[in-house]
Hints:
By secondary structure, the protein is mainly beta. It is built from 1 helix and 4 strands, in the order αββββ.
Amino acid sequence: MFLTNILLKKAKSKNILVLMESAVSGHQFTKIRERLADKLELIRFDPYIQRNCLYKERRRVRSLN
């Protein structure tokens, strides 16, 4: 391995952007979380059904710097 390959490698970002989806209606939004943290689950207002409901992390969208 050449020395230039080592110097040009990118460091992994600390945060990632994830897609959150409502367990009830399917409403989606994005949220930032740390890469090493557990998958997110949170209760938030859902505009489709006009109530608070559970949102679960569906997938990773991209890395952030």
